Structure formats: structure tokens, C-alpha cells
Amino acid sequence: MARETPAGDLRLANLTKTFGAFTAVDDLSLTVPQGSFFALLGASGCGKTTTLRMVAGLEEPTSGQVLLGDRDIARLRPYKRPVNTVFQSYALFPHLDIFENVAFGLRRRGIRSVDGQVRQMLSLVQLDGYERRRPAQLSGGQQQRVALARALINHPQVLLLDEPLGALDLKLRRQMQIELKRIQTEVGITFVHVTHDQEEAMTMADTVAVMNAGRIDQLGAPAEIYEFPATAFVANFLGQSNLIACDVSGGSGDDLLVTAHGARFSVPAGRSRTDNGPVFLGVRPEKLHLVGAAVQVPGGSQHLEGVVTDASYVGVSTQYLLRTGWGTELSVFVANSGAQQRFAVGERAVAYWDPQHAFLLGRDADEPDRTTPVLDEPVGASS
Amino acid sequence: MSALAHVPIGSGQSASPPPAARSGRYRLLPYLLLLPGAAWLVLFFAVPLVQLAAASLYDPTGSISTGYVLTWAFDNYPTALRAYWPQFARSFLYAGIALVLALLMGYPLAYAIAQKAGRWKNLLLVCVIAPMFTSFLVRTLAWKTILSDNGWLVGLLRDVHLLGPDGRLLATPIAVVLGLTYNFLPFLVLPLYASLERLDYRLLEASSDLYASPLKTFRRVTLPLSMPGLIAGTLLFFIPATGDYINAELLGTPNEYMIGNVIDSAFLVRLDYPQGAALSFLLMSTILAVVFVYLRRAGTEEVL
Ligand SMILES: Nc1ncnc2c1ncn2[C@@H]1O[C@H](COP(=O)(O)OP(=O)(O)OP(=O)(O)O)[C@@H](O)[C@H]1O
Ligand SMILES: [Mg+2]
Description:
Chain A: Keywords: ATP-binding, Cell membrane, Membrane, Nucleotide-binding, Translocase, Transport. Chain A: It comes from Micromonospora andamanensis. Chain A: Residues 363-383 are annotated as: Disordered. Chain A: Residues 10-238 form the ABC transporter domain. The structure holds 2 protein chains of 2 kinds. Chain A is α+β, with helices and mostly antiparallel strands. Helices cover 21% and strands 34% of the residues of chain A. Chain A has 2 domains: 10-226, 3-Layer(aba) Sandwich (Rossmann fold); 240-371, CATH 2.40.50.140. Chain A has 8 helices and 20 strands. Chain A is elongated, with a radius of gyration of 24 Å. Mean pLDDT of chain A is 89; it is low at 1-5 and 374-383. By secondary structure, chain B is mainly alpha-helical. Chain B folds into 2 domains: 18-55, no CATH class; 77-298, Orthogonal Bundle (MetI-like fold), CATH 1.10.3720.10. Chain B has helices at 2-5, 7-11, 20-55, 76-116, 121-129, 136-146, 152-159, 173-197, 201-209, 214-225, 227-243, 246-251, 259-268, 273-300. The interface between A and B is medium-sized, with 37 and 27 residues.
């Protein structure tokens, strides 16, 4: 039941929102192609909800445009926008039962026979038989699914999901992820999905935008962002990275040469975000290989020697900490494929990597190494 | 991670029930708490009520000086109603009109204070309650001045020809209705405010996100969610307004008298106790019937 002619891409142009002196969303520009699954990822308080609210019409932008196709909808009242929201707080109507909650949008648009659609939607979110219950009689996860059904049933041109799966347990969460992705592909609605869960973002989305303090740090396909992050924030927000503070000391052919604490490394120019000044040399922990100190590393790779200070066995892999000569501890993930040598704490070892797997990022002059793992925000934590 | 994060949520449900001995004492507690209030009601409400009921059935030919006999004179009721049905009907009419006026003013007022007033909220609430610090009588007398023939209001209305050159407000039904509206407005506003204050603005946002215009949002979300306050407020307004006699006494003439005035004079001027008691009972039972019908309708209305 497509409501109107396809509207085209959702574009945010120089969107800004300030609350008093505080800038929650800062000159944000991005395009979400029509029918794509777009994930907005970022730490708590970085402006994700505020961005969605401006698209939904619940918050007036301080400046900038929200375009749906060629139409600027930034000043349209919320109920005039072909956009629906799954709210972070659910916002279910306590005085209506589940059936009427889900039917609300259809009824307000004057659709008379809602029965079939509502039941279909309820069975989609696995809530058949709950029609006559009140929201207060449902668990958090069930309420969340009602919120999802209530928005989805309208088949909007853009569906905004503000952490819609945050309260679900892992199994249901995976199930709903698959279900959401299936619905999205089937109906071709543009999904803008806000989440804390990087795994969720990466598995579901065509495009991921990593937001940091009101701005988009990087936008692209999940693999693209993961393999070649644009900023130190992205490198550590999406997965984990060893970032070694270096300075560019020159170039040789297609490579850039950097030095850190007397050691020299080379990085392909194509994997560099900057070609001069202070930089971070970044390598993902799983891209590091570990061999004994006496073993020759393969030709063409870069390496660093150190002492193993920690070895945690986590099943699929063993996670080592390797202290370098200047005291920084690198994370190294070694897959438990059975072929690898195990290292004990206190042993000397060499970590090496393929220069194609390293990347160079800009760095403020006085920023030190950043290798300590950032604690993942708990999945489902939300403000 | 997420699995762990959710462990504490369900764990509260497995708390073991309190031991039987304790639950026994707890079952008595509500009745103990009820005791003082119940005793008060029996002494000062139930007993006088029975006395009043008896008085309404006294022989109407008796008097205070000669004494009254309980003759089960059920005739007192139709007689009283035949004599005073205009005042009776007028009470409900005036109170009803005043209620409509009060709703038109009170709902937006309560809504504005609850949802839009921000830091002015408490000050505005005090403004609603402040008139109650002066006596009901004094406030009504003040309205006498406001509505008086040479007051500024009548002057203004004459100037704009809403009133004829000899037109007046005082001693008209309008004055009585205005007085009732004014005097009982806070009783409507306060419970409404309490309901609207709890209204979660995010529900209004959700409604607006789901294609409901502001009007539809009001009809489908705000109004149903403020129903408890609305019901309490209308009852607190309507019941005392119907039985009121001060407003008709001070702002009206005998042509505007309500049933309260008749009962007042039956007990204090004409000293016709049986008739006063019969009218009191008639008023009480009619109000009870109105309230009952109202609650049934408001309570079961399918708010879709
Ligand atoms: N109405 C408001 N007034 C003032 N500040 C606000 C308001 N709404 C949001 N903010 C601030 O704007 C910033 C962004 O808020 P927002 O709700 O968009 O965060 P978020 O990215 O959705 O966070 P989370 O992941 O925790 O939900 C926060 O620092 C918040 O305190
Ligand atoms: Mg948020």
C-alpha cells in the first residue's frame, strides 16, 4: 500500500540544531538513497535522536534543510510528513489496547477496514492474541514490538527507528533484525536506523554513518568504514584499533614513511588520510600476527617486538596484550585455528602486519598512542 | 552483553510471598485505617441523614411550637415538587450552563498551566487557588459590585450596545450563572490540572507522527487521558453548584431563585421542616441519579 508516488532520496543539507548555547547537531549533510537501509551509529548524546526528530518534524531545525526527493519538508508539520517513527521510549498510548495502538495511524488517515492489516502486522511482530491487552500489560520487549508495528503498518516513505531493538533479548533481537531487514527489502521503504550496536549496524545496513558530537565522522558501506576508518573516533567506535602516535618522515614511491619512538614503518599512500605532520598508524588487532621473537617475519610486512603481558582465551580467539619497547600495549587477536603457537605471559614475541592492512589517520600534535580497548557500550543501553 | 544487561529486569518477580501471619495482619490494616473516617461519617452524616429522612415524612400540619409527628406522609414529596419545580429545574439549568462555561474556560486554562507554563506553573496554580483565601460570601458580594448598574462592565456593554440603555446584568439569570461559574471554577480546574500534568508530551508527539492533526490528537489522546480529571472536576463543580443558594440570593432576584434558596427559606424562614427535608432529599437523589448516569456513560464510552 504505497501511499504516494515514490519520493526519492532523503537528504539532510547543513542541518543544525542548537539548544541554547549547545549545538546538538552541527551542520550535518548526508543523503540516504531511496529504499536503502541506513544506520546511524554513535555514542550516547551525540545527536542521533535529535537528527531523527528533525526528520520526523518533532524538532524544528535551527538551520538547514530536510529534503525528500526535491521537496523541502523541514517546516512541514509532523502529521503531514510521509515519515513514521519508532520512538526510543515507545510512546504507546496507554488508554488504547494493542490493536488500537497499531491501528492508530490508519484510522487517523480515515481508513475504515483496518482489521486485516493490524492482525497481519501483529503476527509479523509475533504478538498474535495480544490485541485486547493494554501497553502496561506487556513486557518491555513486547511494547517495543508494538511500537514497531504501529509505525510499520503505515508504510511510510521513510521509517525512522530510534534503537527499536534495544530492549529485546539476543535471540529475539537477531530474529527481529532479520525480520526488519526482510520487510525493508520487500517494501522498499527507506529505513533510518539509530543504534548503539555496531554489529547490528554492520549486519543490517547498506550504509553506516558514524556520528560524533553532532557531526558525521564517516559515512559508507560497513566494510569500507571498518577497513579504512576516517578518524581515530571511528577507528575505535566501530571495532577496536591499535593507534600508534607517529610523525610522517617522508615518502618512498607509493608509500609514506612514518616514525614512532625511533621505529620506522611504511604505509601505502592510498591507505593514508593525511600525508604530513602528526599521524596515527592504525592496525586492527585481528590484522596483527604473532610469532616468536626468533622467527623471521614474512618479507614485505611491518613488525614490532614486545613482551606478552596478558593472554585471554575467549574461545574463537585468544586476545593478547603485547607491550612495546616504549610501554604501549598493543591488542592482538589470534584466531584459535589450532595452527597458531600459544604464547605465555612474559614471553617475548613479534607482531607483524601487512602494510595493506594498516592505515594512517590525522592526529593532534600532543595526542599519545590509543590502544587500550574502548569499552563497548552495552547493547540496548539508551538514554 | 545484552543478555547480561537484562538479567535484573525479571528477577523481582520471584520474590517469595510474605509469611501467612504477616499477610493476615496486613489484611486488617485497611479496615483499621478506615475506622476514624467511618465513625465520623456515621455520627455526622448517616445519623443526620436518617433524621432528615424522618423529617421529610412528618405530618405537614405540625410546627416547631406544636411539635411534629412521623406520619409517613409520603405526600410531602409530590406536594413540594408541585410547588417548587421551577426552582428545581432552574438549579440544574443554571448549574449546567455554568458548567459548560467553566469547561470552556477551565480546560484550556488547566492545559496551559500543566503543559505550557514552564516555570510559571506554580505561580499560576496559586492564582487559581488564591480567591479561595477570601470567603465565598465576600467574593460573591464583590461580583455584585462588578455587575452593578453603574459599574464599568455594564457601562461598557451599554456603550457597545450589547445591553440596551436600561439593560442590566445584576438581578438577571446571567449574573447568577456568571457567579456560579466563577465561584466553582477552581474545583474544575484543579483535578483537570492534575490529570493533564501527568500527560506525557511524547504521546502527543507520537500521535502527531501518526497523522493526527492537533485537533485529532486532542480528541484521541489528550481528552481520553484527561478523562479522570475531567470527570472529577465536573462532579466537584456541578454538585455544589446545583445546591448553591448564595449566588441566586446575592446576584439574582426571587425570579432567579434556585432550589437551595427554597430549602434555605423552608428551614430558616417558613420553618416548614417536612417540606425542606423533602426538597433536600429530592435534590440529593436527583443529583445522585445524574451523577450515576454520567459516570456510567463517561466510564464505558469506547474512547477510540
Ligand atoms: N530539548 C533539549 N534541550 C537541551 N538539550 C537537549 C535537548 N534534547 C537533546 N539535548 C541534548 O542534545 C544532545 C543530543 O541528544 P540526543 O537525544 O540527540 O542524543 P542521542 O544521540 O540520541 O543519545 P542516545 O544514544 O543516548 O539516545 C544531548 O547532549 C542532549 O543532552
Ligand atoms: Mg537517542
